[in-house]
Amino acid sequence: MTTFNALLLDKREISPGVFFLTFENGKQYALDFKAGQYVVATIPTAQGAVKRLYSIASSPLDTSMFNLLVKRVEGGIGSVYLSELLPGKTITLSGPAGLFSLQESPTHKVFLATGTGLAPIRSFLSTYKSMRCSLFWGVPTIEDAGFLDYFKEIRENNPLFDYYICLSRETLETLKQAQNEVVFFPGRINVVMELYLGPTLKGQGKNQFEYYVCGSRTVVDSLKTYLFSLGVEKSNVFFEKY
């Protein structure tokens, strides 16, 4: 991995405590990465530097910039530092690294992600713009669901893409009261996925998909266990934990 200083160009809070960071690319150092890879951030502290890994949330096709997606966790050394980093400042990064990548096949991709686990999936969606794919993204509430305009744009340009935002702390009643969009569904990822892919998942068609799972270690292990319990073959499941 190459170590370099990355200049922060822009920072947006896309939902409460979740920041979308845009870094300059191609001037001091050209980060040549593959969709799904990550960088290692060096975070300065009073006790010395610590390392934190962040998946790249943008496409390698855009050579002028790259994005990271960070959820601020109080007491989290890396997330607090990055959430407070100001545009015009630099941070030391190393990379790219990682083996999480999209299989180059016409197989229907099913993306299962929670929270900032969306980052590498966003990189896939921004790179492979004509693939047949379904996204099930889990967040707690409606206000946690950023990227709605981005998903709409992807859908407008790729009719083979459909997406379901799975809200673990919402109910049908709260969604009706909010009068929100039809892309919102109450429940966890496996519940919503079973509703919309149920007949296929429970039949012979379950292995006609490739499943890409990204999120916390607990979430990834739980979703893998769920898929395997349905009879999905391990060779059809790809994952990234954080």
Automatic annotation (TrEMBL):
<dbReference type="InterPro" id="IPR017938">
    <property type="entry name" value="Riboflavin_synthase-like_b-brl"/>
</dbReference>
<dbReference type="InterPro" id="IPR050415">
    <property type="entry name" value="MRET"/>
</dbReference>
<dbReference type="InterPro" id="IPR017927">
    <property type="entry name" value="FAD-bd_FR_type"/>
</dbReference>
<feature type="domain" description="FAD-binding FR-type">
    <location>
        <begin position="1"/>
        <end position="103"/>
    </location>
</feature>
<dbReference type="GO" id="GO:0016491">
    <property type="term" value="F:oxidoreductase activity"/>
</dbReference>
<dbReference type="InterPro" id="IPR001433">
    <property type="entry name" value="OxRdtase_FAD/NAD-bd"/>
</dbReference>
<dbReference type="Pfam" id="PF00970">
    <property type="entry name" value="FAD_binding_6"/>
</dbReference>
<dbReference type="InterPro" id="IPR008333">
    <property type="entry name" value="Cbr1-like_FAD-bd_dom"/>
</dbReference>
<dbReference type="Pfam" id="PF00175">
    <property type="entry name" value="NAD_binding_1"/>
</dbReference>
<dbReference type="InterPro" id="IPR039261">
    <property type="entry name" value="FNR_nucleotide-bd"/>
</dbReference>
<protein>
    <recommendedName>
        <fullName>FAD-binding FR-type domain-containing protein</fullName>
    </recommendedName>
</protein>
<dbReference type="InterPro" id="IPR001709">
    <property type="entry name" value="Flavoprot_Pyr_Nucl_cyt_Rdtase"/>
</dbReference>
